[in-house]
Amino acid sequence: MVKVSIIGATGYAGVELVRLLALHSEVELMFLTSQTYSGQKIQDVYPHLRGFVDKELREQNIEEIAEGSDLVFLALPHGHAVAVAEKVLKMGKKVIDLGADLRFRDTKTYEAWYKVSHENPVLSRDAVYGLPEINRNRIKEAQAVGNPGCYPTSAVLALYPLIRQNIVDVKTIIIDSKSGVSGAGRGLVLGSLYPECAESVKAYNVGKHRHTPEIEQILSELAGTDVTVSFTPHLIPMTRGILSTVYAGLTCAAKDIDIEGLYRTCYRDEYFVRVQPKGVWPQTKWVTGTNFCDIGVDIDARTNRVVVTAVIDNLVKGAAGQAVQNMNLMFGIPEKTGLDLVPLYP
Ligand SMILES: NC(=O)C1=CN([C@@H]2O[C@H](COP(=O)(O)OP(=O)(O)OC[C@H]3O[C@@H](n4cnc5c(N)ncnc54)[C@H](OP(=O)(O)O)[C@@H]3O)[C@@H](O)[C@H]2O)C=CC1
Ligand SMILES: CC(=O)N[C@@H](CCC(=O)OP(=O)(O)O)C(=O)O
């Protein structure tokens, strides 16, 4: 059994990890931490876990936690992970950060967009970006993984087959995303209050969302050239789910491309990416509670642009599920373990 602990177990991402790991056959849950609720049992803070997990929430004593764990998940606000990751790694244990602190090869970019200083550029440079569909072999060898952001997971999986085949003009990419409110976390945020967001949809952080440089970093690495994207996130009144619609101009004639075949070939061995038949556009409900990313794709022959939609559950493939998938890879556990779930529908 792999011994795992979660720092920040009471946030939405952390508690989703607890849910998935509670029934994971190869894992033993060791320590769960919380600042606010330390001393209480997690099943008292989150009664849906009663009967599955019986654990007291602890303070963040990292040495003790790392000593008793093989892997530590960090589900903290950005800016808090580096110091913890350093201690865990120093004790020879592995770490997966669900936040943004280990996602950037160039920490100057991180500092510019996140407005916090990064104390360990080497740690960030050596960490592996944890998108298994692209980085599987490197994740298997990793000591530290930066788990991708929720919007970038959907956008990069939507674009990867196009970039890999070099059939779109990378200066024309537009990413239009909608997220459920749990993406903002459990903290009290005015915009997450029911009267503020119910029966309403809005764009936010237009042209300046922190996931823009993350998407550009990965697409640039894949394309071998600098890629810039127009990315606009929207808040939509639902709890879970992200839908990203991506547009890109083709560099060849539409008639020369079997677009569905291209996506099927690219993802043929990827259990968690489900390419829909041409003309079928997935909805967020098709993936709720699971690690799937469902993709719909077609070419708009009139404009010679590809249109792709990708849906994920932001808390699963966008956070905790992807983290479990990465853990499985890092410990040689079959990749689907703990994640072989049927979506919740309707
Ligand atoms: N929500 C989502 O869909 C996704 C979230 N993420 C990332 O995962 C991380 C956690 O997000 P999420 O769960 O949504 O956030 P929440 O606000 O729901 O939870 C934050 C967690 O961090 C703990 N915490 C807060 N401040 C501190 C601090 N100063 N020191 C130690 N612990 C602290 C909280 O503990 P407590 O309240 O018990 O004191 C809580 O457990 C973030 O980096 C986020 O960006 C990534 C992808 C998707
Ligand atoms: C709806 C909503 O507010 N979503 C969050 C998602 C960010 C997130 O989860 O941050 P990381 O993935 O980078 O850690 C936001 O836009 O800030």
Question: What do you see in this structure?
Answer:
Helices cover 32% and strands 20% of the residues. It has 346 residues and is of the alpha/beta class. Helix 1 crosses helix 12 (316-330) and helix 7 runs parallel beside helix 12. It has two domains: 2-126, Rossmann fold (3-Layer(aba) Sandwich), CATH 3.40.50.720; 151-314, 2-Layer Sandwich (Dihydrodipicolinate Reductase, domain 2). It is globular and about 60 Å long. The model has no long low-confidence stretch (mean pLDDT 97). The chain contains twelve helices and 14 strands. Bound molecules: NADPH dihydro-nicotinamide-adenine-dinucleotide phosphate and N-acetyl-L-glutamyl 5-phosphate.
Concise summary:
The protein is of the alpha/beta class and 346 residues long.
Share of residues in helices: 25-40%
Mind summarizing the main beta sheet? 7 strands, parallel
State the helix count.
12
Examine the coordinates and then state which fold CATH places here, giving the name of the CATH topology of the largest domain: Dihydrodipicolinate Reductase, domain 2
**Which structural class fits the helix and strand makeup?**
alpha/beta
**CATH evolutionary superfamily of the largest domain:** Dihydrodipicolinate Reductase, domain 2
Distance between the termini: 35 Å
- Please mark out the parts with pLDDT under 50 across 5 or more consecutive residues, or reply none: none
Write out the distinct hetero groups bound to the structure: NADPH dihydro-nicotinamide-adenine-dinucleotide phosphate, N-acetyl-L-glutamyl 5-phosphate
